[in-house]
Amino acid sequence: PEDFIRIGNTYLLLGDGDAALEAYEAALEADPNDPAAHMNIAHLYRLGGKRKEAYTHYTFVIEHAPQSYQPYLGIGLLYLELDLNPEKARLVLLRAAELAPAVFDVLYPLAQACYAMGHIEEAGEVLKDALPLCHDASQEQNVLAFLAEINAQQQN
């Protein structure tokens, strides 16, 4: 399955989601219990707005690789982006943060969920933890702008 996953990742980098999905599905045919194949398929489904399909694959990964933060992150993003349910998103993203406390891609959406719930102080604390974990200047600018927005709200 690893070769199919690498091929799928290459197609994904080239912007061909359909070919990537075919490669990931071939990985599942080779090993129906491969968490990486399920994770990649879930990611594509989430990006395509296919909530139910994504959720099914994310929960498979949780059952077979419970110490992986990635399926919790994926489900949290489903709740945050597709369901517009920050309360559920926060709960799942907190679990992802327990498993991966130093991963920017977990902390930033957690801060977004907290903020959407009106937990402004918690959002600020999470963003302060996320700031040193930024991958690039663009992420750093986003975090700083978000922190400035939070600071402005706290002063009102």
Structure, explained:
The chain has 156 residues and is mostly helical. The chain folds into two domains: 1-68, Tetratricopeptide repeat domain (Serine Threonine Protein Phosphatase 5, Tetratricopeptide repeat, Alpha Horseshoe); 90-156, Serine Threonine Protein Phosphatase 5, Tetratricopeptide repeat (Alpha Horseshoe), CATH 1.25.40. The chain is 79% helix and 0% strand. It contains nine helices and no strands. The chain has helices at 2-13, 17-30, 35-47, 51-64, 70-82, 86-99, 104-116, 120-130, 137-155. The longest helix is centred in the C-terminal third of the chain and has 19 residues, at 137-155. It is elongated, with a radius of gyration of 17 Å. The protein starts with a helix and ends with a helix. The model has no long low-confidence stretch (mean pLDDT 97).
Comma- or semicolon-separated keywords:
156 residues; mainly alpha; Serine Threonine Protein Phosphatase 5, Tetratricopeptide repeat; 79% helix; 0% strand
Topology (SSEs and partners):
Blueprint: H1 2-13, H2 17-30, H3 35-47, H4 51-64, H5 70-82, H6 86-99, H7 104-116, H8 120-130, H9 137-155
Helix pairs in contact: 1-2, 2-3, 3-4, 3-5, 4-5, 5-6, 5-7, 6-7, 7-8, 8-9
| CATH architectural grouping of the largest domain | Alpha Horseshoe
Instruction: Give the number of domains.
Output: 2
- Figure out the total of helices: 9
State the major sheet: none
CATH topology of the largest domain: Serine Threonine Protein Phosphatase 5, Tetratricopeptide repeat
